[in-house]
Amino acid sequence: MRLMRAKPFIAVGFGFAAIAGTCLLGCKKAPPPKPDPHSAEGVMLKLTQQVKLLNEAVARQDFKYVHDYTYYVHGLVDAFASKLNDSEKQKVGGLFDELRNLTDQLDHSSGRKHLESTQSSMSRLEAVLNELNKEFQQMKQTDPALTRRAESRAGTIVEGELIT
After folding, report:
1. Residue numbers in the chain where pLDDT is lower than 50
2. Strand, coil or helix: what is 162?
3. Hey, CA dihedral for 80, 86, 90, 94, is it positive or negative?
4. pLDDT given at position 40
5. Domain count, the chain
6. What is the model's pTM?
7. Which residue range(s) make up the domain with 64?
């Protein structure tokens, strides 16, 4: 008889626990929007990631990977340069030329499987990229269009399909 009286209270307790759990899980902060991958900031992030991967490949002496992917890094340098306006390009033009030259050197030395030359080119590539990244951070302060964020596309129609 006592068990019959306790069942409603147990059910109500589980109900409150479920509601509290749902509220706690549903109250997360939304993650900050990621940069648009086609903006200058998005290309710079990808360039930084790829150089990090190349550095890891050099550390494990994976010359084939380095040889194959330096062309991609070279393309990212060109893509990043195309995202800047003329005055910004002039400001960092020397860095772009040096990055292109270093990716070519890295490609050649890794193709020949020359460890010391590959490591030297990689360390110089990282240093020049860090310098470019510092300059880019200063450019972002003056030109907010460089930091364009990806917009939510929910509810838009793309190629005949509704994105929800």
Report:
1. 1, 152-164
2. strand
3. positive
4. 86
5. 1
6. 0.70
7. 40-143
